[in-house]
Design goal:
The structure holds 2 protein chains of 2 kinds. Helices cover 34% and strands 15% of the residues of chain A. Chain A has 12 helices and 10 strands. In chain A, helix 3 runs antiparallel to helix 5 and helix 5 (189-204) runs antiparallel to helix 9 (265-274). The longest helix of chain A has 20 residues, at 106-125. Chain B has 2 domains: 21-170, Cyclin A, domain 1 (Orthogonal Bundle), CATH 1.10.472; 174-330, Cyclin A, domain 1. Chain B is 55% helix and 3% strand. Chain B is built from 15 helices and 3 strands. Chain B has helices at 27-38, 43-64, 68-84, 92-106, 113-124, 126-134, 143-163, 174-183, 188-201, 206-209, 212-228, 243-250, 255-259, 264-290, 317-330, and strands at 12-14, 17-20, 362-366. Chain B is globular. Chain B starts with 11 loop residues before the first strand and ends in a 10-residue tail after the last strand. Chains A and B meet through strand 1, strand 2, helix 1, strand 4 and strand 5 of A and strand 1, helix 4, helix 7 and strand 3 of B. Chain B: This is Cyclin-like protein. Chain B: Residues 285-311 are annotated as: Disordered. Chain B: Keywords: Cyclin.
Chain lengths: 331, 376
């Protein structure tokens, strides 16, 4: 590649995805060679000016600084387009779990799980609920570091009292049962359910609760986790849509049976505590970091540093493309 | 100044300008920047424009029912805007409406551009608004006019957002007033007055010059002075300090400076700025009652149609002036403050307004002053 002229700030290397407000580009800072992601904020046709969702995200990210939270360096306006300038991450979790070139050990997966929980513990300590934890919003770089990203749905909550929020948050497959049953009063526990889903996905490589649509989603959870009882979730009957979705029949819990071939005993314990029906009894991120899975059971967590040898970059987009290509070849 | 947000980036993003967010300016910096943007206006005219603008923001905010934080932030955005953009280039109401609009997004007290514009027309044209209300409808504005105003609002929104370097974090003195008043054992009456003075402080530039806890201390100091000046001591409830004691504590250096990380010179300066505001408000209030002023010449920048509410002053001008004299007698000389710009030219010599809001340039916006941006 020819040496870029020094008076150029960034060389745009490619289009790596599409965010809420526009495209995301990979670019190299010519002076330092540092990679950044430029996230476009499209303002065309915005009758209400600078999008309030973008403003919320920028405002939140400015107040956050943690190894496991994606860093927003600065903003840039170039030729009338506004960009958020982020640190560059090579992969997203969905993408990197789909690829087959680099195989993750249990110690690597434990590290991913720990890093995710450390990021969440920090957010919740700062009074922020992410509200959209899923594979494509968790990024991984070639050093094996994991960072939480996309704060477009996140919001600050009052630690002492739970407030009324919109129920329409968190991507369906990662949405906790209380939201599926219509709760509008909730707290950081909603992220912990999503974290439980991600923890299982690390091992199984695919989302575990794949409901066909929103109505089916809770039944998919019933099938695996069994039906909740007055004992496992005393508050369930008070939820707005309980009558609509209440189980017709008793379904036993098959969680341990289904996942014991993937996870260690302490891993199963932690995942089960993350996927507790009752939000009040669901383990917090800070508590989860103290779990025997991390502190007692072998092997200890190990950062997947070998990822740097992985060729290419794996975002959900690429892995879909790859799957499609394979499928076409097989046909 | 039309907005031209285009699509894909070019393959190479060209060399750029840098703008750093400066949370506070020294009083000297504020004066230097203001002087430049004041243009041909006198300091008095500039102050009048400032009060009119703050009153306008206050009136629209009250009409919509915005909380204090939204109104105060809007007033401060207005002040900051005119450190970098010339007063002659903008009608004050356009800047005020845009400042309120940005502020309501920052604080998540959302209103549509249309709602803010309608409320602004109601304040600017009270007669038409009253007529419309009597008919049971809202003020009738030509849709083309409204669309035109919306475009202007959004153009200024962009300038404001760039002026603050997309730094949407705001810290206001109000929560500090409550906490610090409690720490000093102030009575409810004194702490309430301190809170009101903090509200008024946004009609001055002190919130561009000092962090919120220092402004809160300055307001508590002035509240204590106002409550004790030329008054006998009243017995206070147990556990409370009376206003005399608080005023005496804050008028001399002591442990409180270390405890609250504030300098006595700064809180005196804030108290002076705010009492000056009260004095001028009390004087205009009395002159308006006794001798009607000659109407000033019509100007495109200072609309006289708005019934801008001014600061409510429960004290007489002469009493305030006597207090001001006493404050002058005991004050400390101003301290030397370092600029947070860390040697960078804050005036952006070619003048910021030349590279903000442009569609043919690339500008990087940093969230903190030069020494505090770490490029990890």
């Amino acid at each position: 590649m020819p040496e870029p002229p020094k008076e150029k700030l960034y060389v745009v290397l490619g289009h790596v995805g599409t965010g809420t407000f526009g495209k995301v580009y990979k670019a190299s800072h010519t002076a330092t060679g540092r990679m950044v992601a430029l996230k476009q904020i499209k303002m065309e046709g915005e009758k209400e000016g600078f999008p309030v969702t973008a403003m919320r995200e920028v405002k939140l990210l400015q107040s956050l600084r943690h190894d496991n939270v994606l860093r927003l360096y600065e903003m840039m306006v170039s030729h009338g387009t506004v960009y958020m300038v982020f640190e560059y991450m090579d992969h997203d979790l969905s993408g990197v779990l789909q690829q087959t070139e680099f195989e993750f050990t249990d110690a690597h997966l434990k590290s991913f799980c720990r890093q995710m929980l450390a990021g969440l513990a920090y957010l919740h300590h700062k009074g922020v609920i992410h509200r959209d934890i899923k594979g494509s919003n968790i990024l991984v770089n070639s050093r094996g570091e994991l960072k939480l990203a996309d704060f477009g749905l996140a919001r600050v909550y009052q630690k002492r009292r739970k407030s009324d929020y919109t129920n329409r948050v968190i991507t369906q497959w990662y949405r906790p049962p209380e939201l599926l049953l219509g709760a509008t009063v909730y707290g950081p526990e909603v992220d912990m359910w999503s974290a439980g889903c991600i923890m299982l996905e690390l091992f199984t490589k695919k989302p575990v609760f794949q409901g066909a649509d929103e109505l089916q989603q809770i039944y998919v959870v019933y099938k695996i986790m069994g039906t909740p009882t007055a004992d496992s979730w005393p508050g369930i009957t008070r939820l707005p849509w309980y009558e609509i979705f209440k189980p017709n029949e008793f379904i036993p819990n098959r969680f341990r049976d289904l996942f014991k071939k993937w996870l260690s005993p302490a891993g199963l314990d932690l995942a089960e505590q993350l996927l507790a029906w009752d939000p009040e009894r669901r383990i917090t991120a800070a508590q989860a970091l103290e779990a025997p899975y991390f502190n007692q059971e072998q092997p200890p967590a190990a950062t997947p540093v070998g990822l740097s040898a992985l060729k290419g970059e794996w975002h959900e987009m690429e892995s879909k493309r790859e799957r499609d290509r394979k499928r076409r070849n097989e046909e | 100044m039309a907005i031209d947000y285009r699509g894909d980036p070019p393959q190479l993003i060209p060399a750029s300008y840098l703008k750093y967010y400066l949370p506070y300016f020294t009083p000297q910096e504020v004066e230097r920047l203001s002087e430049k943007q004041r243009g041909k206006l006198s300091v008095t005219q500039e102050e009048k424009a400032r009060q009119q603008a703050c009153g306008f923001i206050e009136a629209i905010g009250a009409d919509i029912g915005f909380p204090r934080k939204t109104i105060a932030t809007a007033q401060n955005l207005y002040h900051r805007f005119h450190l970098f953009f010339p007063r002659k280039d903008f009608a004050y109401h356009d800047v005020c409406i845009a400042a309120l609009f940005v502020s309501c997004k920052i604080h998540d007290t959302l209103k549509k551009t249309r709602d803010v514009l309608i409320a602004s027309y109601a304040v600017r044209f009270p007669d038409r608004a009253a007529k419309a209300k009597a008919m049971g409808g809202e003020i009738d504005i030509d849709p083309n006019q409204m669309e035109h105003d919306r475009q202007r609002l959004l153009a200024i929104e962009r300038l404001i957002v760039e002026t603050i370097c997309f730094n949407f974090n705001t810290r206001l003195p109000f929560p500090y007033v409550i906490k610090i008043s409690r720490a000093f054992g102030a009575s409810k009456k004194v702490s309430k007055l301190a809170y009101r003075l903090a509200t008024d402080s946004f009609r001055t530039l002190v919130n561009l010059e000092y962090p919120p806890h220092v402004v809160a201390l300055g307001c508590l100091y002035l509240a204590a002075l106002l409550s004790s000046f030329e008054r006998g001591t009243t017995p206070e409830q147990p556990g409370q300090n009376n206003a005399h004691q608080i005023a005496a504590t804050l008028s001399t250096s002591g442990d409180w400076g270390r405890q609250f990380q504030a300098h006595i010179e700064d809180i005196e300066e804030i108290a002076h700025e705010v009492i000056d505001l009260l004095i001028s408000a009390s004087q205009t209030a009395t002159t308006a009652n006794t001798s009607p002023q000659t109407p000033s010449s019509p100007s495109p920048h200072l609309s006289r149609t708005s019934a801008a509410p001014s600061v409510q002053v429960p004290y007489k001008a002469d009493q305030l002036i006597r207090l001001k004299i006493v404050m002058r007698e005991t004050e400390h000389p101003p301290r030397n403050r370092d600029s947070v710009a860390g040697g960078q030219n804050i005036e952006f010599d070619k003048s910021t307004s030349t590279f903000l809001g442009r569609n043919d340039k690339t500008v990087r916006f940093m969230f903190a002053p030069p020494g505090m941006v770490d490029d990890a």
